[in-house]
Amino acid sequence: MDQRISLITLGVDDLARAREFYEQGLGWVPKSAPDGVVFYQLPGIAMALFGRGDLAEDAHHPVDGRFSGITIAINQRTEADVDAVLAQAEASGATILKPAERVFWGGYSGYFADPDGHVWEVAMNPQWTINDDGTVSI
Questions:
Q1: Which parts form a coiled-coil structure per UniProt (predicted)?
Q2: Model confidence at 123, in pLDDT bands (50, 70, 90)?
Q3: Kind plus residue range of the DSSP H or E element containing 103
Q4: d(Cα 124, Cα 20) in Å, to the nearest integer?
Q5: What is the distance between the alpha carbons of residues 16 and 132, in angstroms, rounded to a whole number?
Q6: Which residues fall within 8 angstroms of residue 21, CB to CB, at 6 or more apart?
Q7: Are 15 and 38 in contact (CB under 8 A)?
Q8: Can you list the domains of the chain with their CATH numbers?
Q9: What is the Cα–Cα distance from 78 to 125, expressed in whole angstroms?
Q10: 122: closest CA among 110, 136, 106?
Q11: What are the φ/ψ torsions at residue 104 (nearest 5 degrees)?
Q12: What distance in Å separates the CA atoms of residue 69 and residue 61, rounded to the nearest whole number?
């Protein structure tokens, strides 16, 4: 089996509000938006927004309201870029969970929760390379 992730789907409470956050707030551009779902092409991977209840039904797993222990990361090239992404997210309705700071592994990172509570890390890791196409090399 190939070692990869193809799609991350976020279950959202209000698809229109989630689209506004990602598109108006963060400047993302949808690739496709068939009825009830929206897809964003990211470097080497795709992300979808799908109604939380619809996703629970599709997965046959109830939404229990607890933090799942999963975060999504957006790596940046500089500390200033990390700060800018966190500020943009907060200005668009995200909740800052941890302001950016230098961390034990030698990088710089902070966390925000999007309007549906999905936890995102924004990080700069000096040991990783962000390629010109946006992909990350570890």
A1: none
A2: very high
A3: none
A4: 26
A5: 32
A6: 92, 93, 94, 114, 115
A7: yes
A8: 7-137 (3.10.180.10)
A9: 9
A10: 110
A11: -60, -25
A12: 16
Distance CA 110, CA 86 (A): 8
**Calpha distance 86→25 (Å, rounded):** 11
For the segment 81-102, the average pLDDT, to the nearest whole number, is: 97
| pLDDT surpasses 90 at 70 | no
Examine the pLDDT at 69 and tell me if it is beyond 80: no
Eight-class DSSP state of 10? E
- Token pair, residue 111, equals 């966390």
Strand segments (E) across 54-132? 72-75, 95-102, 108-113, 119-124, 129-130
* Cβ–Cβ < 8 Å for 128, 137: yes
Over the range 65-99, which residues count as b (16 or more CB within 10 Å of their CB) and which as e?
eeeeeeeeebbbeebebbbebbeebeebebeeeee
